[in-house]
Amino acid sequence: MAEYLASIYGTEKDKVNCSFYFKIGACRHGDRCSRKHVKPTFSQTILIANMYRNPAHDPSCNMTEEQLQEDFDLFYEDVFTELAKFGEVEEMCVCDNVGDHLVGNVYCQYRYEEDAGNAVESLNNRFYAGRPLYAELSPVTDFREACCRQHEIAECNRGGFCNFMHLKHPNRALRRELEEAQRLTVREKRKETRN
């Protein structure tokens, strides 16, 4: 029996624990969900809820696609650089959904759980763009499972209200630049600890 329960944990067959919360770290029902949201006490992944404000979601926005991408790239660089101060970032994802439980969520997966814990502790005492940050450890371990596959091939008919992540991506050059800068920083830190 225990083996069976372990095999269905966090899946659709699990009638006790919420599979959406397990996969995505958020659930549209929130605290009113009929299933449990098991919050991890340690994790490599953090969630900063509702951090990114996409100007395109404002009906009065008159920015071009290029301006919107530039605005997002500045946000991504700023947040990645700040989060990397806590430890080595393996992946950072920003949701472009419009549903309350996913809108503007930023997920950051660190190499080490300790770094994620330190980030959560520090970020909950900080503000970004004049608003307080709400960070927590997240159960998400595999972003491929959390992302909407239909959105990735431009076929999601649920739009921004989809319950799977619709990610907003920085331009490739920026992503490579940030990853390379982080690699150099990690290499320098390793050299310092050896000496």
Automatic annotation (TrEMBL):
<dbReference type="InterPro" id="IPR003954">
    <property type="entry name" value="RRM_euk-type"/>
</dbReference>
<dbReference type="InterPro" id="IPR000571">
    <property type="entry name" value="Znf_CCCH"/>
</dbReference>
<feature type="domain" description="C3H1-type">
    <location>
        <begin position="142"/>
        <end position="169"/>
    </location>
</feature>
<feature type="zinc finger region" description="C3H1-type">
    <location>
        <begin position="142"/>
        <end position="169"/>
    </location>
</feature>
<dbReference type="Pfam" id="PF00642">
    <property type="entry name" value="zf-CCCH"/>
</dbReference>
<dbReference type="InterPro" id="IPR009145">
    <property type="entry name" value="U2AF_small"/>
</dbReference>
<dbReference type="GO" id="GO:0008270">
    <property type="term" value="F:zinc ion binding"/>
</dbReference>
<keyword id="KW-0694">RNA-binding</keyword>
<protein>
    <submittedName>
        <fullName>CCCH-type zinc finger transcription factor</fullName>
    </submittedName>
</protein>
<feature type="domain" description="C3H1-type">
    <location>
        <begin position="12"/>
        <end position="40"/>
    </location>
</feature>
<feature type="domain" description="RRM">
    <location>
        <begin position="44"/>
        <end position="140"/>
    </location>
</feature>
<keyword id="KW-0479">Metal-binding</keyword>
<keyword id="KW-0862">Zinc</keyword>
<dbReference type="Pfam" id="PF00076">
    <property type="entry name" value="RRM_1"/>
</dbReference>
<dbReference type="GO" id="GO:0000398">
    <property type="term" value="P:mRNA splicing, via spliceosome"/>
</dbReference>
<keyword id="KW-0677">Repeat</keyword>
<dbReference type="GO" id="GO:0089701">
    <property type="term" value="C:U2AF complex"/>
</dbReference>
<dbReference type="GO" id="GO:0003723">
    <property type="term" value="F:RNA binding"/>
</dbReference>
<feature type="zinc finger region" description="C3H1-type">
    <location>
        <begin position="12"/>
        <end position="40"/>
    </location>
</feature>
<dbReference type="InterPro" id="IPR012677">
    <property type="entry name" value="Nucleotide-bd_a/b_plait_sf"/>
</dbReference>
<keyword id="KW-0863">Zinc-finger</keyword>
<dbReference type="InterPro" id="IPR035979">
    <property type="entry name" value="RBD_domain_sf"/>
</dbReference>
<dbReference type="InterPro" id="IPR000504">
    <property type="entry name" value="RRM_dom"/>
</dbReference>
